[in-house]
Amino acid sequence: MVKIYIDPGHGGTDPGATGNGLLEKNVNLNLALRLRDILLNDYQGVEVRMSRTTDVTRTLAQRTNDANSWSADYYISIHCNAFNGTTRGYEDFIHSSLSPTSVTAQRRDIMHQEITRVNGLVNRGKKSANFHVLRETNMSAILTENGFIDNAQDAALMKSSDWLHAVAKGHADGVARIFNLTPVSRVFRVIVDGVQIGAFQEPQNISNAVLQALPTAGSIVIERT
Ligand SMILES: [Zn+2]
User: Fold this and answer.
1) CA separation (Å) from 172 to 43, 167, 222?
2) Ligand 1 mean position to 9 CA, how many Å?
3) For the residues 154-171, what does the mean pLDDT come to?
4) Cβ atoms within 10 A of the Cβ of 55, count?
5) pLDDT at residue 225 above 90?
6) pLDDT in tens, 90-114
7) CA of residue 80 to ligand 1 center, whole Å
């Protein structure tokens, strides 16, 4: 099992950055919960733990201690930026002590590629910093800054569920590539009296095949491929 630790930044008494009627803590949590759901629903062999799943206060040490004691394989801290209202875009961070050829840097390259492929934001590049969550984690760690909440254009995206889904999916695609995760099959075989009559992805098609066989079948088996 690959163990992914997802850390929605801020929460509870700490709203993080604010702007355009949004609180960073809520955007971070929304993205993080979507990322968790995509990983758990779409892939096999992955476990997820989160620093918070609701609007509660967690110290930075609580977050990194929790990930360390769980022995996570990868730590993903999700944030949004703020600056002067006109600055826009996406950037991500690894710890400043790491070389560009380190495992963590190589993983970040993949995350960066997958996230910027879909997020529609200005790309501000790959950065490094001495942030607590990057320094105090025993495993590879990345911190993503998904747009500027005090910029009207970026904030408009943060209010779109399509955009939130796309950004979460970009993170999930990166994790799947890094850890070579196997997608969950969505295709089901329909077997009537021991003979496969079809394989279908759409629930309606599965249902039609079953209804057609039902009047005469001795047994109908629906089996995930
Ligand atoms: Zn933040």
Assistant:
1) 10, 9, 29
2) 5
3) 98
4) 15
5) no
6) 999 999 999 999 999 999 999 999 9
7) 6
pLDDT of residue 56: 98
Q: At 6, list the tokens.
A: 């997802």
CA of 24 to the centre of ligand 1 (A): 7
CB neighbours of residue 198 within 10 Å: 15
3-state secondary structure of 192: strand
Averaged pLDDT for residues 43-49: 97
User: Does residue 159 surpass a pLDDT of 90?
Assistant: yes
Residue 153's CB is within 10 A of a number of other CB atoms, namely 15
Instruction: Say whether 145 is catalytic.
Output: yes
**What domains are there in the chain, each with its CATH number?**
2-178 (3.40.630.40), 188-224 (no CATH)
Q: Is 47 exposed, middle or buried (0-12, 13-18, 19+ CB in 10 A)?
A: middle
Out of 47, 91, 145, 202, the active site residue is 145
